[in-house]
Amino acid sequence: MLEYGQTRYLLEASWLKKPAQLPSMPVAGVACMPDGCLYALTRNHEHPIMAFDPDGRYMETIGADLHFGSEHGICPAHDGGLWVCDSGRHVVYHLSRKGEVILRLGTPDVPCDNGFDPHIPYPHNLYTIRCAGAPFNLPTGAMEAPDGTVWCTDGYGNTSLHQFSADGKLLRTVGGPGPEPGKFRLPHSLWIDARGQVWVADRDNYRVQVFDQTGALIRCMPPVYPEGTPYGPSTLWGDDTRVYCSQNSRGILVYDQNTLEMEGIMEAPFGAPVLGHSLCGDAQGNLYIGHLDPEPMVTRLTRLSE
Q: pLDDT by residue (tens digit) across 269-281?
């Protein structure tokens, strides 16, 4: 059991019901669709995007023909499809629910030239980035805003945030390397709320930042944990009132969308599988955590009461 205020959740590890012949696999991203289906973006290139029904039963795999390099972020699209990041090949896809490519942002296998040295081990390679380059260099997340524009975090190799028109034209690039407000060390994911505010998990600066639709900084949250600890913000997801942030620890940060203040931390019992690389929620208030450890692949926090 997990509690946050008056809300209680039943923690269900290994919630997915995949076929026995399929191995457990690392899950880099999770996306809840309006019909309750869950799409899990895995690091298994033969089964990169796995679809499950609202009860967690496996339905199908899509995206194997795209030959992913390193799967990273996934998010529902306004048309019922999906936005998916292939960090390893430096591209972002808009896909149909059947895996057909509607739009591709970036050029496969062509990263921008901004000084990033991939031969230096992470996280030291982040400090080789000289400036915010053009899209992309190891992108991490993508989401549509209410006005139809698309925002992408260009994280591991470009420390930047990009805005595109609905037809894929680059409108602006925000950020660049550094610890100053408005800069990034590793923009690992994003969430856009109903007002169009762009929330960014700036993982290796240990903070969350919020921007408006022009790319202007609205709020730079103070770090929750000190630099050097393994607790950087990882993935953001929001409902009508709150934004939830999974992190590299056993808790979920909770922010108020209106005040842009952190409410608290949803902490699980020691040893519970709440350390998550990715996070999403459904219309019933349930939360889903994707794990890079092959087992459990996805944990569900089933909402019991308010």
A: 656 656 688 999 9
